[in-house]
Structures are given as C-alpha cells and as structure tokens.
Known about the structure:
- There is one protein chain.
- By secondary structure, the chain is an alpha/beta fold.
- It has one domain: 3-Layer(aba) Sandwich (Dihydrofolate Reductase, subunit A), CATH 3.40.430.
- It has helices at residues 47-59, 66-72, 107-116, 128-136; strands at residues 21-28, 33-35, 61-65, 86-90, 101-104, 121-124, 142-147, 156-157, 168-176, 180-187.
- The strands form two sheets. It has an eight-stranded mixed sheet with strand order 5-4-3-6-1-7-10-9. A two-stranded antiparallel ribbon has the order 2-8.
- The two termini are 23 Å apart.
- The structure holds NADP nicotinamide-adenine-dinucleotide phosphate (NAP).
Amino acid sequence: MIGNPGSDIYHTVNYSLMKPKVILFNACTVNGLIARKDGSEDFLSDVHWKVFVRLAERSGCFIVGRNTFDLYKDDEDYSLDRIRAEKIVVSHRGIAPAQGWYRARSVKHALDLVSKWKKKEVVLSGGSLLNTAFVKAGAVDEMVVNIDPTVIGKGMPLIDPVSAQLNLKLLGTKKLGDDIVQLRYKVI
Ligand SMILES: NC(=O)c1ccc[n+]([C@@H]2O[C@H](COP(=O)([O-])OP(=O)(O)OC[C@H]3O[C@@H](n4cnc5c(N)ncnc54)[C@H](OP(=O)(O)O)[C@@H]3O)[C@@H](O)[C@H]2O)c1
C-alpha cells in the first residue's frame, strides 16, 4: 500500500526500493532565510546559482514549487529552462506547464515521475512552502545548504515553521569563495 492517490504522505515501506534520493538544495542567509518577503533574492551571491545548476544536471532532474517557477520562468540570467535536466513544477492547480516541464500535483506525484524516469536522485529547490511539504512528507534524504555571509531581518525561511524535526548527520563542508560555506547533511 503506497498511500492514497494524491496524498503527500510518503510511505517508505515497499516503496523505498524505488524512491529516488531527494537532495534539498537552498542558499540562505546566516539566519536561515532564502528570500525576502517579496520573493527577491538580491542579497545572495551568484555562486549559488552555479552550484544549483551543477547539482541539478548531475542528478538529471529537479523540482521547484509553483511560486519559484513563476518567479524564474522569464528570467534570462537565471533560466531554469536552460538547465539540462528533467524539470518538475509542483502545483495543486491544473496549470499547463511550459515546454519541457512536467506538472506534479503532490509530493508523491513528483517522486513517482522521477521513479518512472529511473533517476536515482532528484534536487529539490523549494521555496519555503514546497520544502516544507517534502519535510512533512518525510521525503527529504539529504540537504545541501549554502550559507551566504548575510543576515536580513525579514524573509522566507528555508523551512516554514512546522511541527516536524529533521535529525541530520554532517556529510561534509566546503568553502566556496572567500565567505560562503556549504553544509551537506544526511537526514537520519
Ligand atoms: N535561496 C534559494 O536557494 C531558493 C531556492 C528556491 C526558491 N527560492 C525562493 O523561494 C521563494 C518562493 O517560495 P514560496 O514558499 O513562496 O513558494 P514555492 O515553495 O516555490 O511554491 C509554493 C507553491 O508550490 C505548490 N505546492 C507547495 N506544496 C505543495 C504540495 N504539497 N502539493 C501541491 N502543490 C504544492 C503550491 O502551488 P499552487 O498554489 O499552484 O497550488 C504552492 O503555492 C521565491 O522567492 C524564490 O526565489 C529560494
């Protein structure tokens, strides 16, 4: 039994053999914010974009939330379309995704698509709401977090406040440039 159709509850029993590894990648400020309240990320370094593209192309697929998709779909400098990987946008709505995109209606649906493509891993890059949905569904296996040397007062958190807890094991750290630190964790 793999859960109700459309359900975000990800039952690992029976399904774990097929489940792709989900790597949550986000860049954030030292106080854990990934964007300003208005959605802009002007305070973040360009380095993070390059890291995301590299991870997504290595995995062969990536997943974003509908707000992130909307924000970047016409962006020439940070074009999600140009990334050489399968692309999934998650939305409850029956939106017609752009060419080269798949629309998933739930966390489980997104992972079913990735499994169908026989990809072993997928990069998830929320925003807040979608990251949170994956965390609540118990579907995140690894986290790669780039810490920008910035603090901003208000903004969107990496994970929205939820009554969920992830216990993490540190897999590695890397210094990117002079001031950025990358933390890599396994969810245990
Ligand atoms: N710093 C970083 O690394 C980074 C990375 C990615 C994004 N961001 C930033 O994050 C911000 C956007 O974050 P956000 O929290 O507003 O939005 P988001 O997570 O990008 O998208 C939220 C939308 O995704 C859909 N969704 C979420 N959970 C779902 C579920 N369980 N089932 C079906 N659909 C679901 C819903 O779309 P519908 O309303 O259509 O149903 C929801 O409104 C942007 O400012 C972006 O720049 C930052």
